[in-house]
Structure formats: structure tokens, C-alpha cells
Specification:
By secondary structure, the protein is α/β, with parallel strands linked by helices. The protein contains eleven helices and eight strands. α4 links the parallel β4 and β5. The structure holds nicotinamide-adenine-dinucleotide.
Amino acid sequence: MLRFDDRVAIITGAGHGLGRSHALLLAERGAKVVVNDLGGALDGTGASAGPAAEVAELITKNGGQAVASTDNVATPEGARAIVGTAVDAFGKVDIVVNNAGILRDKSFGKMTVEDFDGVLAVHVRGSYLVTQAAYPLMKEAGYGRIVNTSSPAGLFGNFGQANYSTAKMGLVGLTKTLGIEGARNGIKANAIAPIAWTRMTEALLPAEFEAKFTPERVSALVACLVHDSCEVSGEVFSVGGGRVARVFVAEGPGWKTDDLTPETIAGNWEAIMAEQPYVLTAGDSMKAML
Ligand code: NAD
């Protein structure tokens, strides 16, 4: 059994849905958990201390250890306060699960700068800020586990979610670079692209998905990725309904010539679009160009 005794975990957005489920699972397996949640509406408006407190109380009632935090991940002060809560209560931070999220769906033509910035602020800026506040502690300890929450909407695009998909693909870049930079300090960072029945998706998914796409079926992967034994870093995993799959950004073999013009490109589209054999790193991409 994968246990988390003596590990301290920050889970953002843990008052509802996926974050709540991650917090309950890690706490049940011995982790000391900071249950962070601003407690606002789905679009990020408003705030309430209720959701974070309820989850922290439930954990404590079940015999686990947890403290609630209602700080906002999207501000530097909020992020520092979340990490401060972990240090004050439990003395360190081993695990950060960046899960807090909001939606402001609109078709691209109607999307305002507030819709765009607001969504990027919580998902991208929030993940950056909370991770950066915890990072010096992880470096010092030579140990850290980070999970960022991407989305199929970011990886593959989705109508009405230009802001959200930009944010969610941004988290893939953050995860990949954290994976590279963290290696020398024992810090592993991975991302998940989940599907689960929560308040965020209940109006979008077919009703019969509720029983199959439980948050617990996502949390199982998160627990695996934040455990000491995790061997992967810089990876992205699709997870939902009991299935887990690696998602990777790959570059096809490409087509090259000494006579690259708009016309030769247009005439070789089939070779340019080929997928196999692919390369997976910037270094191998560069080699293929030489
Ligand atoms: P949810 O609305 O139940 O949970 C999100 C939580 O984040 C809420 O409790 C909310 O109060 C909190 N939050 C929002 N802004 C915050 C802020 N600034 N600071 C602190 N907390 C804040 O939705 P969920 O489905 O559980 O979503 C969790 C994560 O998973 C999100 O990042 C979401 O984008 C992502 N995701 C979910 C699905 C899915 O199928 N449910 C799919 C892809 C990605």
C-alpha cells in the first residue's frame, strides 16, 4: 500500500470535487494536508470559508491531520500564506497539488479580457505562485512532488474555452520545465488531464457518467504521482473513468530540403504532417534539422 506518513501535502481547490477527493485520499493514507479553497463560485466570484473548513473537519473526524486555508492561489500573498499555513501547522511541504480552477466559458469572439485574464490567473499564475512559494523548501529538503492539473480541453482544444485551454496547455509547459529543473533536487513534477463528475462538469457530461467518472478514479493517479516511489517527471497523464494514459507532445519526422519556399512546403504537406517516427525532446528535434 502506498502510504504518506510524515509527508505534508498542499492541495489547492480542495473544498470541492477533485481536490477534495485528493485531500481525503492522501490524508487517509497518512499525509498531513493543507486543504486550500477560496470557496467561490465556478466562475471565481465570491468567497467562503465553508468548503475548506468542511473538508479539513471531515479529515480530522476520520482520524487524519488537516488544516484549512482560504487563501487565493492567484495572488503572491495568498500563495505565500498557503505555504506558510503548511509550515506553521506541519513544519514543511513535500507535496503540492495545484488543482484550484475556475471556468469562464465563452466563444472566442465574445471572450473579454477579464474572462481571459481571470482564468489564466487562477490556473497558470496560481500554479506558478504556489509552487514557487514551496520550491525553496523542496530544494532545501532535496525532495518534492508536484502535480499540476491540465485538461483535455487544453491538450486538444474545446469550443468556448479559449481562455481555459490556453491556461491548461500553459500548465503542460510549466510541468515539463519543472520536471527538467527539479531533477537535480529530487523534485518531480507531473500533470494530469482528468475527466470527473464534479460541479464543474455536471452540466456538461451525460448523466450516466456520474457513476463511472468519479473523482476518486482521478485521485488514485495523483496519489501515485506524489508518492516517494514515483519514477516519472515532466509527464502528462489523461485520467478518467478508471483509465490512465500517457499524453505526449511529439514531433513527426518532418520533411527537409535546401530549397524551402512557400511553394515547396505547400507541395509536401503529406510528409510534413506525418506522425511516425516521432521525436520527444527539443534536443532530438534540433538533431533532425541538422
Ligand atoms: P470544482 O469547481 O469542484 O473545484 C475547483 C475548486 O477550486 C473549487 O472548490 C474552487 O472554490 C477552488 N478555487 C477556485 N479558484 C480558487 C482560488 N483562486 N484559490 C483557491 N481555490 C480556488 O471543479 P473540479 O472539477 O474539481 O476541478 C478541479 C481541477 O480539475 C480544476 O483545475 C479543473 O480545471 C480541472 N479539471 C477538471 C475536469 C473535470 O472533468 N472535472 C476536467 C479537466 C480539468
